[in-house]
Each structure stands twice: as structure tokens, then as C-alpha cells.
Write a structure and sequence with these properties.
13 helices
Length: 767
């Protein structure tokens, strides 16, 4: 009988500990043998890297666009029982900070380095060629997921991933900064800033997948099902192996999509308006100990109207907006609770660290003063009126809307502070409630921690508790020293002196510096304003002592000029060190790739040929036709009752589509989902091969109209004028497709958008 004996070494190499500071961890040299017969040789141990003994599972739950004063757990109006339960069994941090914007906060969390160090000074859709703002993660920074993976962890991410440069989101790549090339073995979610919760663009790994055909479908539920399935599978196959999960719903970022059942729970809960809500929230925060006794509401920005001055129609609309948002937030906590419950059922809660962060920045005021029925109007500079939006009152939050709420609610949900998302110089933009629960490692229950913390502190904290060092060398490239500070020192010592002593903040020119409780800042541009309040050189700076002034209500600058100057000098030192300079406060200009010098897949080309099956092509991938004359040429084989899309871009809330319906060639221009110009041939095509052409002659310039013509085999069959076009993008998640219209539909195609014939090619040429 032949007996095979397998020996594995993992934590040490022949009695020596593995060097985890260099990745990949080096495997031992392979031995050579002179012996002919394997029976006469002792089998060598098998090399396998395992996580340090006792290393915990780690789950990071990150909610999107949720202000400090939004959840019940931190004194807000939205019921979050699952967050409450974690807080009761763990610890709450009430001085924890983001960067004030989604992508920058996320890269900071996932790496342990400041957002400018990650070259993510803004979102990738506004990247420039300056260091600190290219959106391309440097080789000297390795994501935490990759570090954990190479140290014996299973890793997975679910939900939103907005850390990939937009021009890299195609099969052309490179895919180095996709989630599955950034340390995650499993990814299920969307790659971008937001998605339609009813009809998302979903990737499983690097593959686009179809949205499940379920009339009750909602993305947050879907991603939670996927997360639960993955962790069950992982525990069934390798229970001895720890895992790291990043659970990041698209909620509560706009569009605010949620079912009527959830909305009904909040009917009438916000009739008091945003001013009273701020007062109520502060009172609850004081009662809960979230803020110190005596904390005052920071001044409400002058641009935000007093609720009492609003018209009856404004109050009706705005109240509905908030009811839908609250329902969306409550549903998200419910789904997060299902994930947490699955961990309990698996019996692994004791050694699982759950980090639950209520927001990657403050609540969003990007809905401007009145909110929006469909958010894409903002990008085309079209103001939505209250009377027009009231027409959608009953459907607000449903698949027929793509809504956002009024800025006044964002200010209220960021109580007790003044400002909102994007304003990195105000805690309303950066302070986010955080809970950490770890039964095996944190003995405190229901306590509050007030040490200063930041998103860059999460990775160092994970490294410390897993006993895995931040690497010094990865793939032969020297790594930058980790920039965050572990929070583990505060786990079991509420009075421990804070160790994160200095932190800069900057976004769109809003900038600040924190040092040992002192805080100097300037508000350069609120989120609802298209232009700065002042030039960078003329900005007015303020000074606060945050140890005595939690909400930033008492400006000490007039009496402390020397201290303010010292803090301003410190900001400039930190800004130079971390690639913040030069500061770029441009806004819409930065969405123009050509102007900013960042790449697009098309580059300087004016002609491109696509093939059937190509889909999900974003703004930086598909040819840009805005403000241009162009032709679309396609050779197709049409069957009897020919039907379906040849090429489209956009969806229900704006887009273009060249298609065949009931055998008739057609083109539709859907202007912001508000009106559609349809150009349709009179006669249907008989079965056969055709050369179909759509030609658009623009009047010239963004937003201008033009003449649209359909040509079949060199014969004009339909023509019509399009009076206006969208100067802005059609969508961030309803993208360009060949042979189908994924997501929501640009036009009515009948039973299916899928082309039922054969498409040889689609060539688009812009003039």
C-alpha cells in the first residue's frame, strides 16, 4: 500500500516567520534531487501562505451620501435598527471623517492613504493630468484587499465601485484598477458613481450580466443576496480561512429609488420641514451623547430658505422628496441587516469585525434648491420647476423617476453642521458616524469614542488587528509609508489620547486643516453653487477649537490671527506633501476630457466601427456625438417582422436610438425623458439585406438642433427636424449598446429591444 503524506507550512518557513512586508511572499527555492525513486525520498512540505493565526473576518459596510444626522443611531430621523444593534454591541465613533466626496473617500478607505496620494483628488470623471488628480492609483500604493488576499484571506466586494478611471471601463482596459485586479477575488456590482436601482448596469467580475427579470427587483436586495451567497459558499468550502468583504450599496446616493411599501412608513414624518428637523436632531444627539451638552446648531447657509417662507406646493413636493429618501435609507439598513444576520447564522460573529460607516461624505445637496425629478437635467443645465415636478408626486422614487431631493434636506441631515457633501472644509461634508463591533476583540458595548479619525485609518486598523503589516515592497516596487493611523488603540480605552493628530481636507477649493483639536477652514464653494464665493487667493478663513465647539458654530479667527496664520501655513505644508497643490476649483469644465487632457477610448478619431453584442460603453468609451453632425451606417439582415435596436446611447431619461420597429427603420431622440422626436419610415422592410444610414446635420454647437434623415439602400425614406439636443451626458449608467438597449429604454421597441436579425457592423462618423 502506498501512503502519501502531505505536509504544509504556512505561518513560518522552516521555523522562521514569513516576511509579510514584501509581496508576493517569496516561496522557498525548489529543491533538486539525485535520487531516482520517489519512495526513497521524504516529501518536502507544501508552501501555502495562510493568514496569521486567529486573524478575524472583516466586513466593511459603507453607505453612500448619508449625513451625520441622518440615522436614528446618530440622532437622525431615519430608523436604522440594524445599525442600532451593532452600536449596542460595539462602539460608536462621533469624530470620524471622510473626504467630502465618494471616490476620494473610497480610495482612502480601501488603501489607508489620502485621496490625493491615490491621485483621486476628485472623481475620475473630472480627472486631470496633475499629480493628485489623474485618478490612476500609483504603483507605490497597494489596496488593502490585495494585501489581505496575498496574506491568506478570501476577498469580495459587492455594490458600488467608483475607483476605476472611466476610460478604462471596457474590455480595452487596462483592468489593473478594476475591483478584481485590485485585490477582490469576487465582485458583483456597478462600476461608477451611481446606478438606477431598478435597472442597474451590473458586472460580475469583469463580465456584464443581465439584470434579473423580476418585477420586484431592486439592486440593493440583489447585491445583498449575492453577498450572503458568497459568504455561505466561502464558509462551506474553507471555514478555516478568514475573509474580507466590502459591502457598499449605491444607496443612499441619487437616484432615490425605493418601493411604495417603504415610502408609506415615512408618510407625514417630515411635514415639520428642514429647520425644525435640524432642531429635533440636535436634541436627540445631545440626549444620546452623540454630541456634547451645550452644542449649538451651526448657522444654516443663507442660500437655504426658511421652511416657513415656502409655498404650499414647495412644502408638498419637498416633503415627498424627504419621505422617499428616508425610505431608501431605511431599506438599505434592512438589507445590511440581512447580511449581518447571515453572519450570526453561520456562527462566526465572535471573530468577525464589522465596520459600519454611515456615509462616504455628507448628505448631498447636488439636487440644488428644488430637487430633481430626474437628475440628468442638471448636466444639461435645465432647471426643473416645482409645478413640473409635482406632476410626478405619486410616482416619486419609482422606476419612472430618477430623483434627488432639495438641498435644504441635505443641510438638515448633516446636523448639527452647516454644509454638505463636496464641502470638505465643513464637518457637514466630512463627518460620518461609524460603528465597529468585534465581540472577540472589543469588550465595550454601547460606548462612544471621540478620538479624531479619518477614512485613511481603516486600513491601518485592519492591518493591526489581523497582524498583517502594510507592505514595504510589492512586485518589486517600493511602497509609500502608510498615511493613516490605526484606531485599535481606542477599542477598549475610551479616554485614550487620540493618535491621528493632523489631517488636511480639500475638495473643489474647499479646504481645511485639523491639528490637535484646532481647525482652520475656508468655504470656497457650496455644492449648490456653480461658481466659487471668492477666488482662491481671496478666500476668507475661519478658526475653531473643536474640543469646545463640536459643530463649528463659533469662529475664533478675529481674536486669534497668529494661530490662524500658523494653521494656514500647516495646510500648505500638508498640501504640498500629499499632492494637493495646485488646487483645481473648476467644476463643469473638468468633465470635458479633451480640455483636461485625460484620455478617452476614441481619442482623436472621428470614425469608429462597432460590432453586434458590444454594450455598456460609457461616455469616455463611446464616440461623443454632442454638438456634432454625424452619420450612422449599418449593414443588416432583416427577417420578417424585423425589430430591435441597431445602436443606442442613453435610456428612459435621455438618449438616442437607431432601430427597426415592426419592420420600419426608425430613429428617436429622447430629450431628458421629457419629449421625444421620432423619425420613422412609412414602409416596412421586406426580409433581406440592407444598408441603413441615419444622418444628422447639426445646426452647430452643444444643445443645438438639426435635421435627421434615414436612408435605406441610398434612398431617403424619412426626414424630420430635431429642435434641440442635450448638451450634457445622457446617463451615467444607461450606456451605449449595439443590437440591444440594456437598462431602461430610449424608445418603445415593442416586445424586445434585441435586434432579431443580423447586424454586420455599425460605423459612426462625426463631422
Amino acid at each position: 500500500m502506498l501512503i502519501a503524506i502531505a505536509i504544509t507550512f504556512s505561518g513560518n518557513l522552516f521555523g522562521q516567520e514569513l516576511d509579510r512586508t514584501t509581496l508576493p511572499i517569496k516561496e522557498p527555492a525548489r529543491k533538486t534531487y539525485k535520487e531516482l525513486d520517489v519512495r526513497n525520498v521524504t516529501a518536502p512540505p507544501r508552501f501555502e501562505v495562510k493568514a496569521p493565526k486567529g486573524a478575524p473576518n472583516v466586513i466593511v459596510i459603507l453607505i453612500d451620501d448619508q449625513g451625520f444626522g441622518a440615522t436614528n443611531t446618530f440622532g437622525g430621523p431615519v430608523a436604522t435598527p440594524n445599525m442600532d444593534k451593532l452600536a449596542e454591541n460595539g462602539i460608536r465613533y462621533n469624530r470620524f471623517h471622510s473626504t467630502a466626496l465618494c471616490s476620494p473617500s473610497r480610495v482612502a478607505l480601501l488603501t489607508g492613504y489620502n485621496h490625493h496620494s491615490n491621485n483621486m483628488g476628485c472623481i475620475g470623471e473630472a480627472a486631470t493630468t496633475y499629480s493628485g488628480n489623474t485618478s490612476v492609483r500609483p504603483q507605490s500604493i497597494t489596496p488593502m484587499a490585495e494585501v489581505l488576499r496575498q496574506n491568506g484571506y478570501n476577498t469580495a466586494a459587492f455594490g458600488k465601485y467608483h475607483e476605476t478611471p472611466p476610460w478604462e471601463i471596457s474590455i480595452a482596459g487596462p483592468q489593473d484598477r478594476w475591483p478584481t485586479r485590485s485585490g477582490f477575488e469576487k465582485f458583483y456590482g456597478f462600476i461608477g458613481g451611481e446606478t438606477n436601482q431598478w435597472a442597474p448596469l451590473i458586472y460580475d467580475g469583469v463580465t456584464l450580466v443581465d439584470t434579473p427579470e423580476d418585477p420586484n427587483y431592486h439592486f440593493t436586495t440583489d447585491m445583498t443576496n449575492q453577498a450572503i451567497s458568497w459568504v455561505r459558499f466561502q464558509q462551506a468550502l474553507s471555514p478555516e480561512k478568514p475573509f474580507f468583504m466590502y459591502y457598499a450599496p449605491g444607496a443612499t446616493h441619487a437616484p432615490h429609488h425605493v418601493s411604495k411599501e417603504w415610502i408609506e412608513k415615512y408618510k407625514g414624518k417630515f411635514d415639520q420641514g428642514w429647520d425644525k428637523l435640524r432642531e429635533e436632531t440636535l436634541a436627540r444627539q445631545i440626549k444620546l451623547g452623540i454630541v456634547p451638552p451645550g452644542t449649538k446648531l451651526a448657522p444654516k447657509p443663507a442660500d437655504i430658505k426658511d421652511w416657513a417662507t415656502l409655498s404650499a406646493d414647495e412644502k408638498k413636493l419637498f416633503t415627498r422628496q424627504m419621505e422617499v429618501y428616508a425610505a431608501f435609507a431605511a431599506q438599505t439598513d434592512y438589507e445590511a441587516g440581512r447580511l449581518i444576520s447571515s453572519i450570526e447564522k453561520l456562527g462566526i460573529m465572535d471573530n468577525t469585525v464589522i465596520v459600519y460607516i454611515a456615509g462616504d461624505n455628507g448628505a448631498s445637496a447636488e439636487g440644488q434648491m428644488n430637487g430633481m425629478y430626474q437628475e440628468m437635467t442638471y448636466f444639461s443645465g435645465v432647471a426643473e420647476t416645482v409645478p413640473d415636478m409635482l406632476k410626478h408626486y405619486d410616482e416619486w422614487g419609482s422606476p419612472s423617476t430618477y430623483p434627488h431631493f432639495a438641498a435644504g434636506w441635505a443641510v438638515a441631515l448633516d446636523a448639527p453642521f452647516s454644509y454638505t457633501k463636496q464641502v470638505a472644509s465643513d464637518f457637514g461634508g466630512t463627518r460620518n458616524g461609524m460603528i465597529i463591533q468585534w465581540p472577540a476583540g472589543i469588550k465595550a458595548k454601547g460606548e462612544i469614542r471621540s478620538q479624531f479619525g479619518h477614512f485613511i485609518d481603516i486600513a491601518p486598523t485592519v492591518y493591526e488587528i489581523t497582524k498583517i503589516p502594510s507592505p514595504k515592497m510589492v512586485n518589486g516596487i517600493q511602497q509609500d509609508p502608510i498615511e493613516g493611523t490605526s484606531l485599535a488603540y481606542s477599542f477598549n480605552n475610551a479616554k485614550a489620547p487620540e493618535e491621528h493628530k493632523v489631517q488636511y481636507f480639500e475638495m473643489f477649493g474647499n479646504r481645511a486643516i485639523y491639528q490637535d483639536g484646532w481647525y482652520a477652514r475656508t468655504v470656497h464653494r457650496p455644492a449648490w453653487r456653480g461658481k466659487p464665493l471668492n477666488t482662491l487667493q481671496e478666500d476668507k478663513w475661519e478658526l475653531y477649537n473643536t474640543t469646545k465647539d463640536f459643530s463649528l458654530a463659533n469662529d475664533l479667527a478675529p481674536k486669534n490671527a497668529d494661530k490662524l496664520k500658523t494653521m494656514q501655513e500647516l495646510f500648505m505644508q500638508e498640501a504640498e506633501k500629499y499632492h494637493v497643490l495646485p488646487i483645481d476649483d473648476r467644476l463643469l469644465e473638468r468633465t470635458n476630457a479633451e480640455l483636461m487632457g485625460r484620455p478617452t477610448v476614441m481619442g482623436d478619431r472621428n470614425t469608429v466601427t462597432y460590432g453586434e453584442g458590444m454594450r455598456g460603453m460609457g461616455v469616455d468609451v463611446f464616440i461623443d456625438l454632442r454638438g456634432k453632425s454625424y452619420t450612422i451606417t449599418s449593414e443588416v439582415a432583416v427577417d420578417a417582422n424585423g425589430n430591435g435596436v441597431i445602436v443606442c446611447q442613453g435610456g428612459r431619461f435621455g438618449g438616442i436610438s437607431f432601430y427597426v420597429k415592426d419592420g420600419k427603420p426608425a430613429f428617436s431622440y429622447n430629450y431628458l425623458g421629457m419629449e421625444s422626436t421620432d423619425i420613422i419610415a412609412d414602409q416596412p422592410l421586406k426580409p433581406g439585406n440592407y444598408k441603413l444610414v441615419y444622418e444628422f446635420k447639426s445646426d452647430g454647437g452643444l444643445g443645438k438642433g438639426g435635421l435627421g434623415t434615414i436612408i435605406v439602400n441610398n434612398k431617403k425614406v424619412a426626414e424630420k427636424r430635431i429642435e434641440k439636443t442635450q448638451p450634457g451626458i445622457f446617463s451615467v449608467d444607461d450606456l451605449a449598446d449595439i443590437g440591444v438597449d440594456d437598462g431602461t429604454h430610449v424608445a418603445d421597441y415593442g416586445k424586445s429591444s434585441k435586434f432579431n436579425g443580423k447586424i454586420e457592423y455599425v460605423t459612426i462618423e462625426r463631422k
